[in-house]
Specification:
The chain is mainly alpha-helical.
Length: 240
């Protein structure tokens, strides 16, 4: 194995280094996606039950115990439950945008390895042929058939190795890109769903609040009912 690599020259070692980098990126990203994988349906269902019952602190505590970008986006929304719907939506989208870099980390380096592998193979092929024909007397027919066959074999082996290493790299790249897009979509969906759950629960609480009792006032022998003004805190909460 090492004898064959040494016979192919230094370009083969560069291709092996790119392959090791690609394998490291694939292993790290697969572990990351496995670690942050959360069932969004169950997560939003449990979160909705807590928020509709007004248990904001309990919901925030449960979210902080979960790993991953989805929990961080929902935590950013739950930290400001009194804001208006548009403001909460902006917070959710900004928090999701900040998580895009973490989700797509190192994936472009895998694309770089995928592109470099066949290029290095072609470069090794060209260099092997150039080195062979630069030998004295080669152009005058001094080379024997075994020497020509060995040179062609080494040159073609470099190209084949580069292509063979690039194929699995590109397969893993397309898979990781699709996985990253799905994760980002779930993150944005969870953030916006949390905004709607909070605002809908807040509106239902405002509608279910009991009306202020009316008091009877009498002036000049005439009695009338006057509704007591709502407290300033309730008015501000309803305005939100």
């Amino acid at each position: 194995m090492f004898d064959m690599i040494e016979s192919m020259g230094p370009v083969a070692w560069l291709m092996i280094i790119c392959a090791i980098i690609a394998m490291t990126v694939v292993a790290e990203r697969l572990f990351y996606f496995h670690r942050v994988n959360i069932n969004s349906e169950d997560f939003l269902r449990g979160l909705s039950s807590l928020l509709r019952s007004g248990q904001y602190n309990e919901a925030l505590h449960e979210v902080r115990l979960l790993p991953g970008p989805m929990a961080r986006v929902v935590e950013a929304v739950l930290s400001r439950p009194k804001l208006a719907r548009n403001e909460l939506r902006d917070i959710a989208l900004e928090a999701a945008e900040l998580e895009v870099f973490r989700v797509e980390r190192y994936i472009r380096s895998l694309l770089a390895c995928t592109t470099l592998e066949p290029l290095l193979g072609i470069l090794g092929t060209v260099l092997a042929l150039v080195a062979f024909y630069e030998q004295p007397g080669i152009t005058d027919g001094a080379a024997t058939m075994p020497e020509v066959a060995e040179t062609l074999n080494r040159a073609l082996l470099l190209s084949a190795t580069g292509i063979a290493l690039a194929i699995p790299c590109y397969i893993f790249y397309t898979y990781l890109v699709a996985r990253a897009r799905k994760t980002i979509n779930n993150i944005e969906r969870a953030g916006l769903e949390c905004v709607h759950i909070i605002c809908d629960a807040r509106e239902r609480e405002a509608e279910a609040a009991p009306a202020a009792p009316a008091k009877t006032t009498c002036r000049s022998g005439m009695c009338s009912l006057e509704k007591e003004p709502e407290p300033a805190a309730d008015v501000a909460e309803a305005a939100e």
